[in-house]
Amino acid sequence: MVPVVSSATYDAARRRAAFIDRSDRGRIVVSGKDRASYLQGLLTNDVVALKAGEGCYAAYLTAQGRMISDLWVYEVGDVMLLTMSADVKDLVLAKLDQFIFSEDVQLGDVSATYAQIGVVGPRASSVVAGIVDAVQEEVLDSMPDHGNLRSSTDGRPVIVTRIVDAGERGFDLYIEHEHVEPLMARLRQLDVAELDEQTAEAIRVEGGVPRFHRDMDEETIPLEAGIESTAISMTKGCYVGQEVIVRVLHRGHGRVVRKLVGLTFGSGAPVPAAGAVVRADARDLGHVTSVCLSPALQRPIALAYVHRDFIEPGTAVSVDQSTAEVTKLPFV
User: Fold this and answer.
1) Distance between CA 95 and CA 103 in Å, rounded?
2) pLDDT tens, 2-18?
3) Does pTM surpass 0.90?
């Protein structure tokens, strides 16, 4: 059955603003004076370069260059806040703990302490400015990707981060769990629509944003998922898995066997199932990972891995007897 997308909430997210409960995320805080240098040797991006109010997207890899998780790193002044898919949080926390020796570093699981509410859409900055104390809309508009600030809402502490992973730009608000219901009630009073999971997923797929354990997993090399430009620093020092990444980039000229691409189907075609095989020239090329019936394009679209010989936009492939065309991401 094709997931039903709410046209009203989709329209709100694309034209005005909408909010979503991001309880599918795990949250870890890293404190101590060595926190940046400690994470620098473990994560793929340049964590040590972050100043208070800055952040980045990164990956945590095995020595073989496979992904343990992707994650978002925010330097909020006295701690670093890490967020990731909730189903890998415990594993990430355990692996990070294994690498603490003499460093001044402490780890804390704050997933149950803080709620995470996303506000996305063209008017997201206006909405957030209306509920966060003493923060002007212009300040929010000027925040860079993954930027962050600390403030309050109705006198309750809140952390605001700039997000780009929802398919529509916006902000995440981190607030203690006991205060999240008043925050959501206030958003509803401002006539901000609440995004259901299916509509949020359609927006993510239209944005071409890969999601861990859906479009990436423990067998994925970041270069296959196409996240190297945002998650990997090409100038920083050593990190776990770097040798594999450098070897592929320099000796292999960045060529991997498979790549994550977009697929656009014809109007009226059935929406394929995640996991469906992608074929061309009587050979199996890969498989579909995420799908939706795009409200913007009025046709099925998908994220899929295909063999590197078939990644050029415009290439014709087939999925379950339906013809599709490889499409440059994002779709919208």
Assistant:
1) 15
2) 567 889 999 999 999 99
3) yes
